[in-house]
Amino acid sequence: MRGGISKTAYMTTMGVAAAAALALSYVETLIPVPMAVPGVKLGLANIVTVFVLFKLGWRAASAVSAVRVALASLLFGTMLSAAYSAAGAVLSVTVMALLKGTKKFTPTGVSVAGAIMHNVGQILMAMMITGVEQIAAWLPMLIVSGLVTGIAVGIAGSVLVKVVKLGKSED
Amino acid sequence: MLRPSSVKPMSDQKKRIRNDILLILAIALAALAVCCGVNFTRRQGAYVVVSVDGRDVAVYPLDTDIRVELETYHDGRNTIVIKEGCACIESASCPDLLCVKQRTIRYVGETITCLPNRLVIRIEGEGGVDAVQ
Question: Which residue of B has its CA nearest to A137?
Fold first, then answer.
């Protein structure tokens, strides 16, 4: 249930993960993305989500993701960006959990799907909020950028999953 | 017993890596197909239709060079320029200015969107408000 580690180890891991994800969200705001399409981002925080998903399961990944979106929006976002991120995060974590559940993909494949679904989620939310449906034209760009960042983030996540050992869990 | 190594069943990890690559290729191909489809079917446009907050508010012909400042959503301002058959947004009051950075448009169906100001300019063909043909 908890990745085979003690309750204390589980709690501290979750805390560290949430803090790391928040820090990565902040680092990301410092890196300018030279793209004319809104919503293109590196998705560095997804390294942590992928790691937690593979180590501690989807409940833990959802919790860390929720904490990260809430705090990041509060600290360096707006009401609108909060809604977009939340929609993206929900869709992304759901799809990643399902793909991981099939046991047919490595963390990299799961991360790619997550990155793309995050972008799809935020575009859907933006269409709902603003009613401007033409922004669907941004989807191809967002999917390609999700593919590229998803691979990079996924490789980083895979390395973490492989290298980091939590307590007694040896998997 | 000797068997050629290629007949050995793949390990789970190898299968996963193969699935990853298939997933990535499938998505890349789909994106490529969409881009090609858009490029091969494009036609030179005739008009720029401006909509603010979902309502069409103005139409300008693409063959006349103009510069016009528009009042957009929530007292926003965007300046549209039509030059040499292409339309773009030259300046805007929105915070991100992504509409200004988007490339110019000239083919039927292309759009530039300024999300904060809820402004969409789109290109339409001969025959006015008729994007589907």
Answer: B111
Residues B21 and B70 in one domain: no
Q: For residue B27, give its domain range.
A: 11-40
- Per-residue tens of pLDDT for chain B, all 133 residues: 555 555 667 788 899 999 999 999 999 998 888 878 777 777 888 999 999 988 899 999 999 999 999 999 888 999 999 999 999 999 999 888 888 988 889 988 888 999 889 999 999 888 655 444 3
Best B57, B115, B117, B118 member to test A by mutation, with max A CBs in 10 Å, is B115
For the question of an ipTM over 0.95, the answer is: no
Min Cα–Cα distance to chain A from B45, Å:
17
Q: Give the number of beta-carbon pairs within 8 Å between A and B.
A: 68
A161 touches chain B (CB under 8 A): no
- Examine the domain organization and report whether B36 and B100 are in the same domain: no
CATH architecture of structural domain A7-163: Orthogonal Bundle (1.10)
Residue A85 to residue A121: CA distance in whole angstroms: 8
What HEC string does A103-146 produce?
A: CCCCHHHHHHHHHHHHHHHHHHHHHHHHCCHHHHHHHHHHHHHH
